[in-house]
Each structure stands twice: as structure tokens, then as C-alpha cells.
Design a protein that fits this description.
six-stranded antiparallel beta barrel, 27 strands, 501 residues, alpha+beta
Length: 501
């Protein structure tokens, strides 16, 4: 029998209405519970804040050598067209743009871009995104009243994408202050003000859709996600709470069209504030450094370590010159607390360490072989360049090593021929993986021929026999996952857990 859904809704609605009247006639007069949740208007709030938000215009001299391929609308665009091979007029464009050396050389010209920013100090301190001003020859700040001022760069940081500018205003500017973004909750109202597509003083309203988003844009990702409309040109502008304080800097969007689809991301105030303070004071960042290479604790790694659940940051390597080594931290340790902050997952640690003052002595709580230990570490200053952890030297390997097979891996000791074949340095050590079975769990975990096994079950191994003996010992204890510490040809370390059955 077919049922008319509209008729059913009318009947069920009538029953509900009768029940409501019987229970409480006054309930019909009460407003819905959600009516008080949303702001009736943000007009007054916008009027208070709009003068503190600025339009940032940059110009850059573009030549054939420094043409920018960025197409986010906040940086100078790529000026030269690209044509597929065989396209009509291909020869004409190749000659015109001097691709093949014929024809006139491309002439330098000015490229302009627009972004947003906001005033944090009445004396003329302005904050924006680094990518808004990156490569700019001239920076001009346009205010809501129509006035314009040239700006100079105080300092910038690429890793959290923030830049600090300075202008010299004839009178104090309208400034805003930062809020405690750690207290922002999913569902809280948020308001963005910026200059999308060059349309100045545009106000959009939405909510905080999520916290701690990692969009793989940098080492300290923990974005606030919002559905307040953010478009090209909003970059560097503020995201406000309903008290008119800045909870984040609008930085990125995810969009297949280039326009807002409700997926906007802001760097939280808690992340940018210490960076801004350092840029104002020193003109550069001075981040804390621990000197460890870390990886995520997966469920199978947690099981192999005897942990109740996956948490913390697993140390895969320790820099010989870093503060972690003299403090006694070792590969295989799991950091679960740093300076009083819980480390719930791997990406929490770099951000917390970076925010720690240089030379501060902190307590680090680790899990090591089933025990909870506390180590004292003096935080050093991070060298913003890349640091390579090198393996230590080892005596020569016997020329005819034994081989073995286990866990879908074929293993061998090291010889000169094998070192040459897999491009391993003379200081490489461990047990060489020469083959990985197709379809094996090891292949699924990205284990590759040429990787070296350094530890099995947190015990060092130097021969295939060491590996098989250690695996047998783990099986006898009822362990279901074997934790392997591996190194690649570049000396980069990582842990992999493989099932023993």
C-alpha cells in the first residue's frame, strides 16, 4: 500500500500539536531553542572593526627569470601563456616569448597583486600572510577611509605564513587585539573581513566548522576551519569572534572552482602571536628545537610497544648535536607529554616545541619499553635549515654474509657489492633488505629493498640471524606485532610494525 508522505506528516503533526497543547499551552508561545543562538545582526560589530582591516597592494618587477607561477590571486600571476605541443600559433608564441632564442627578449614589467591585512598596533604595525607580500618590490596599504601609506617589511615567517609590516601614519590607527583561540569551539560564530577579488571591506559570516585541521601546508598546521566565505584576496585578513577579537588569520581555501565553497582555513591566533612577537622584536623567528625525528604512533605500532592505545610522538632518530641526546632520549621512546602539554598525536609536538622559549629547561614524559620515564631537556634554538641525521660508523662487514627470510622480507648482511648496488654509504649499518614479497604486509607498509633493519622489538640487530632470533623471542612472549626500526639510503629512520603470524 502506498502512503502519502505529506498526509502522514500532517497527521503526525496534528497528533504532536495536540500533545503539546495538553502538556503546556505556553510552549507554543516560546521561541525555538535555536533562535537565540545566532546573532540578529553583525552590523554594529562590523562598523567597529572595518577601519582596522586594510587592503594590501603589492607590485613586483617581473622578468622571464622571476615570473611567478602562483595563481591564488594574492601574488603576482604568471604572465606568459603556456600552449600544448602542436597547438595553433605555437611557433608564433614561442618566438614572441623568446622560448627558442629567436625574436625579441621579454621586457620586464610590473605585476600587481592584492591581499588583506589588519592593524594590531595604533602606531602602524600591520599583520598579513607572507604569501601576500612574498617577492614584492613595493607594498602599499590602503585604508577604509581611502588613504594610502607605503609599508616596509619588519619580518616574515614562511612556516606559518605570516608577515609583519610597518607604516608611519599621521595619526593613531584603529587597532584590534587577538583572542585566545584555544577557547574557540566548533559551532561558534565567526566573521571575516577582507578584500576578496579587490572588493574592499567585505564582511562575511559563518561558524567555526572544525579545529586543528592539517592541510599539509607546513610543519605547524592546526588551522581553524570556517564556512564564512573566504575568497582570493581575503588572504591575510582577520577572522573575528563575536567580541570583535581576532581568532585567526585567513590563509587558505579548498575549492575546485577558485571561489568559496565553505572550506576556508585560518591560522589560529595562538599559533601566530608568538611568531609575530618574535618578528617585531628580532625581525626573525627564534623557535625551540628538540633534535629528534618523529613519526606517528599507529595502532599496530602501539600494540607492538604494549601501549593501551595510540598516542604521542614516536622518536625515530636523535640528532647527535641536539639537546635530546644528552638528555637521554632514544629512538623507540614515545613522547606523551612535553613541558606540561599532552602530546595526543605526532603533529602536536613540533608546534609545542617551536613555541617553547630557547634555553628553557623542560620536563619530557616518555614511554620506554613499558615504563613511564621523565627526562629533563634544555630546549635549543632551531636552525631553520634542514638537518640531516647521520648514521655512525661501523667496522667492515664480512664479505660473505648469511641470508634469511622472514615477514615477507629477504635479508642479507652488508658487502661492498651490495652497498654499491643499493647506493649505501660506507658508514651504513644494519641488516639489508634485498627483496620484499609482492602483496605482503611489508610491501603495504612501504618497506623497500635497500632499507636497513637496525632494530627488532627495540633491540639492535646486525645480522639476519639476529633478526630471526629476535622474532622467535617475540613470538614466544605472545607478541603479535614486531616493531622494526628501518633506515633508508639517506639515513632517514622510521618505525614499521609487522604482524608475526
Amino acid at each position: 500500500m502506498l502512503i502519502d508522505s505529506k498526509s502522514l506528516m500532517r497527521r503526525s503533526g496534528a497528533v504532536a500539536l495536540a500533545a503539546l497543547l495538553a502538556a503546556s499551552p505556553a510552549a507554543l508561545l516560546a521561541p525555538p531553542a535555536f533562535a537565540a543562538a545566532g546573532p540578529p545582526s553583525v552590523a554594529d560589530l562590523s562598523a567597529q572593526l572595518i577601519d582596522s582591516v586594510v587592503n594590501i597592494s603589492t607590485s613586483q618587477t617581473v622578468t622571464a627569470d622571476n615570473s611567478d607561477n602562483d595563481d591564488d590571486g594574492d601574488a603576482p600571476p604568471q604572465p606568459m601563456p603556456k600552449l600544448p605541443p602542436g597547438a595553433p600559433f605555437e611557433d608564433f608564441f614561442n618566438q614572441f616569448f623568446n622560448k627558442d632564442g629567436k625574436g625579441p627578449p621579454p621586457q620586464p614589467h610590473k605585476a600587481e597583486a592584492l591581499g588583506s591585512g589588519f592593524v594590531i598596533d595604533p602606531s602602524g604595525i600591520i599583520v598579513t600572510n607572507n604569501h601576500v607580500i612574498d617577492g614584492a618590490d613595493d607594498i602599499e596599504v590602503n585604508f577604509n577611509d581611502g588613504s594610502k601609506l607605503k609599508a616596509k617589511l619588519v619580518g616574515r615567517d614562511k612556516k606559518v605564513d605570516v608577515a609583519v609590516l610597518k607604516v608611519d601614519p599621521p595619526r593613531p590607527l584603529k587597532a584590534v587585539k587577538f583572542a585566545d583561540s584555544d577557547k574557540v569551539r566548533v559551532g561558534d560564530w565567526a566573521m571575516a573581513i577582507g578584500n576578496p577579488f579587490g572588493l574592499s571591506s567585505t564582511v562575511t559570516l559563518g561558524i567555526i566548522s572544525a579545529r586543528n585541521r592539517d592541510i599539509n601546508s607546513g610543519p605547524y598546521d592546526n588551522y581553524l576551519q570556517t564556512d564564512a566565505a573566504i575568497n582570493k584576496g581575503n588572504s591575510g585578513g582577520p577572522l573575528f569572534d563575536m567580541d570583535g577579537d581576532v581568532i585567526g588569520i585567513n590563509t587558505a581555501i579548498i575549492s575546485p572552482t577558485g571561489g568559496s565553497i565553505g572550506l576556508g582555513f585560518s591560522v589560529p591566533a595562538a599559533t601566530v602571536q608568538p611568531v609575530i612577537e618574535q618578528l617585531e622584536k628580532y625581525g626573525e623567528t627564534r623557535r625551540g628545537w628538540l633534535g629528534v625525528k618523529i613519526q606517528s604512533v599507529t595502532d599496530d605500532i602501539a600494540e607492538s610497544l604494549g601501549m593501551d592505545h595510540a598516542e604521542g610522538a614516536l622518536i625515530a632518530g636523535v640528532d647527535d648535536k641536539g639537546p635530546a641526546k644528552p638528555a637521554g632520549l632514544e629512538p623507540g621512546d614515545v613522547i606523551v607529554k612535553f613541558d606540561g602539554h599532552d602530546i595526543k598525536e605526532m603533529r602536536d609536538l613540533p608546534r609545542i616545541v617551536a613555541d617553547t622559549p630557547v634555553d628553557k629547561q623542560v620536563e619530557v614524559v616518555i614511554l620506554r619499553k613499558g615504563q613511564t620515564l621523565t627526562k629533563s631537556v634544555t630546549v635549543a634554538r632551531l636552525d631553520e635549515g634542514d638537518t640531516v641525521i647521520k648514521a655512525s660508523a661501523e667496522p667492515a662487514v664480512p664479505p660473505k654474509p648469511k641470508t634469511a627470510k622472514a615477514l615477507g622480507l629477504e635479508m642479507s648482511g652488508l658487502t661492498k657489492d651490495l652497498r654499491d648496488q643499493f647506493k649505501l654509504g660506507s658508514d651504513a649499518k644494519g641488516v639489508l633488505i634485498t627483496k620484499v614479497d609482492n602483496g605482503s604486509p611489508a610491501e603495504d607498509k612501504q618497506v623497500k629493498p635497500g632499507d636497513l633493519i637496525l632494530e627488532v622489538g627495540q633491540q639492535a640487530v646486525s645480522s639476519p640471524d639476529d633478526v630471526t632470533r629476535r622474532l622467535d623471542d617475540l613470538k614466544k612472549t605472545g607478541t603479535k606485532q614486531a616493531l622494526l626500526l628501518l633506515s633508508n639510503a639517506q639515513g632517514e629512520l622510521h618505525f614499521v610494525a609487522l604482524a608475526l603470524n
